[in-house]
Amino acid sequence: MPRVEIPSPFHLSPGQLRRLRRRLLAWFAANGRDMPWRRSRRPYPILVSEIMLQQTQVERVEPKWRAFLKAFPSLNRLAQAPRRDVIVLWDGLGYNLRAVRLHLLAQRISRERHGRLPRTLEELRALPGVGPYTASALACFAFGVDTPVVDTNIERVLRRLFAADPSDPDAPITKRRGATLAAALLPAGRSRDWNLALMDLGAQVCAPRQPRCGACPLAAWCTARAAFAAPRRQAGSQPRSPSTPGGPRRLSRRPAVRFENSNRYYRGRIVKLLRSLAPHESVPLSQLGRRIKADFTVADRAWLGKELRKMAREGLLEVRRKNGRSHVAMPS
DNA sequence: AACCCGGGGCT
DNA sequence: AGCCCAGGGTT
Q: Both A218 and A163 in a single domain?
């Protein structure tokens, strides 16, 4: 019976591919990281972990994840909670919009689906705060769907393993290329362990800076290994020209002023201030500026107003009238 | 594709 | 003082 051969995106023979999979899964069984959300089989705790893990390190998420689930034990309970409480529990995680979107997601799923998350990629992808990565991660880790998952760790592993130019193992690859490689490697029926294994390999062995190729179970198949074994000097890592100890250095060494003039910094300050308020308290707009910016002047009013409107639109805060004056508060 | 969005830890 | 991190949304 004739079969259509799907062209392999890489150089491995079927036998090599089989051995590669077996080696990594064995490595994972012995070296995989133990994280609390990996012990759960409930979609909701896994959802919370995936949202928290967006651009936030594992170690920092762990305690926050526990506290969040203690406060909001189920998706329906999260949906019922005041927005304010959700933002308060998000303290220390950053990217506060994630908290808002998770709350919106919970409210939608609670109202429209009786608190049951969908399990297809398309439906998951349509939820607020769920992009391509999180949709596939949820499908795989929460529902056992055979789908590739490509985060930054896995992309790095794939990039190096199948580098087109062995002398440039960290040359960027396209999303499409990453998805193609990940799909071709995926062992049907073991997607969960496989994707977690690739992640852990990227985090613990195939590290961004100094990959430990000597400890890598995939080194035998890896295109990048030679390049890392004989490290050539990177473009940006040349030792800086020696500074003569009296030569024209800096004019004055500033006390490392974190020039966080960015909107980002002040948005964080605003949310932090609102978190510190009692549940029904609010801050007069007339005071807000100088409470988040030491050198706030009238010239900053337009800027602040614009940021506040944006944040109100995003659901991070509310601007209300109180005694005829504008006050800023947590969303109700 | 580029930009915005926090915060902490690492080198 | 940059770089990095289980990305998503907007333009």
A: yes
DSSP E strand stretches across A3-82: none
Residues with Cβ within 8 Å of A314's Cβ and at least 6 positions away in sequence, in order, are A97, A100
Residue range A176-182: average pLDDT? Answer: 92
Is A195 contained in some domain?
Answer: yes
Distance of A3 CA from B6 C1′ (whole Å): 52
- A281 as an active site residue: the answer is no
Among A143, A176, A202, identify where a domain stops: A143
The overall pTM is greater than 0.85: yes
Cβ-based neighbour number of residue A281 at 10 Å: 11
Q: Which residues contact A71 (CB under 8 A, 6 or more apart)?
A: A81, A85, A89
Mean pLDDT over all residues of chain A? Answer: 87
Round to a whole number and report the distance in Å from the CA of A23 to the C1' of C9. Answer: 38
Q: Which of A5, A50, A123, A281 is catalytic?
A: A50
Written as six digits, the tokens of A221 are 């198949």
Chain C, protein-covered positions (CB within 7 A): 1, 3-9
pLDDT value of position A19: 97
**A196 and A117 in one domain?**
no
Q: Is residue A236 part of a domain?
A: no
Q: For residue range A1-26, what is the model confidence (pLDDT) as tens digits?
A: 555 545 678 888 999 999 999 999 99
Same domain, A193 and A282: no
Q: Report the DSSP pairing between strands A318-322 and A283-284.
A: unpaired
For chain A, how many structural domains are there in total? 3
Residue A163: is its pLDDT beyond 60? yes
